[in-house]
Amino acid sequence: MNETPKQLFDSINALFENVSLKELKTINLELSKKYKKQKHNFFSSDKERLSYIASRMPATTKAIEYSLNEIKNITPKISIKSVLDLGSGSGATLWALLSIFTSENGKLKTDFPRTFLVEKDEKMIFYAKELLKNVKGISKKVTFGKNDILRVKNYDFDLLMLSYVANELKNFQIDKIIKRWVFSKSKVIVFIEPGTKYGFKNIKYIRDFLIKKGCNLIAPCPNTLKCPMPKNDWCHFYVRVKRSKIHKYLKGGTLGYEDEKFSYVIATKEKVKYPKARILRFVKKTKQDISFTLCKDGKVLNEKVSRKGKKRDKIIEKLNWGDVFDV
Ligand SMILES: C[S@@+](CC[C@H](N)C(=O)[O-])C[C@H]1O[C@@H](n2cnc3c(N)ncnc32)[C@H](O)[C@@H]1O
Fold this sequence. Notes:
Blueprint: H1 6-15, H2 21-36, H3 46-55, H4 57-74, E1 82-86, H5 92-100, E2 114-119, H6 122-132, E3 142-146, E4 159-163, H7 171-182, E5 188-194, H8 197-212, E6 216-219, E7 237-242, H9 245-251, E8 257-268, E9 277-279, E10 284-285, E11 289-296, E12 299-306, H10 313-317, E13 324-325
Parallel strand pairs: 1-2, 1-4, 2-3, 4-5
Antiparallel strand pairs: 5-8, 6-8, 7-8, 9-11, 9-13, 10-11, 11-12
Helix pairs in contact: 1-6, 2-3, 2-9, 4-5, 7-8
The structure holds S-adenosylmethionine.
């Protein structure tokens, strides 16, 4: 498991020093119910904001980090020097960037992207700043803007990130954002949503609109053909996230980690060398062979590869759910 930065857990813990966790637990339950009902207008109280930070932010940070790694893996020539984060909440995108652009000695790498975070909820901006206050050097790289994301006109940032925000937007607003992005100088756009039937419905809508506008897809789709996912199924992936003490208290359970399921799409206006396929489920292994569920050539299909002695098996043995299947 690629660990959540300890500094994020420490910062979250510090935020909760004077907060009653008992009260938060009830709020957390209510927030989860709301989330399951796909209700809009998320944060109606300060406790809801704090509950989101403790129970959701480490997971959304990991999902964002995953998407950033996909950009690097599939389109290594695209360099990300600037990021516009729309609906930035408590700053998950920044923490994902910190995971990637921090050196082993703890210092920010010199190529840490210039990042502009836009959020309408002033209190969320306050918490994002609080969480970052002990991260040395970050203030030079980051600008916060309190605004409605639909009013943002300048998209000329290499990467546009919308993580767990589309759920709070109407389709015509999503269209508007995509159209604006298509005409900007931005290279890459990322949308991430919960890995649920409803989250995927949003992502599929976004995917289809991006293709209609002539975009290429970096991930997860291995082509721009019609999405082959059957009606009652949904395309999703997962990241394993370490659980903090507060997280365990709020959400119950004893496991040291949780799996965050998410659906996502990354598009670009630049050319993409598409892989053959993407692995859509856990890989099943027997002594004889390995079975993959793949998205390939506009179909969801199962493919078995023999484990007997071929050279390419070494690559295949390491493949996992979410990886490209390009052998
Ligand atoms: C579920 S949170 C996600 C936060 C963060 N992106 C993450 O991945 O953890 C959604 C955030 O988007 C913000 N938001 C939703 N619609 C917005 C709008 N029209 N303008 C600005 N912010 C918006 C909400 O206030 C909230 O903080």
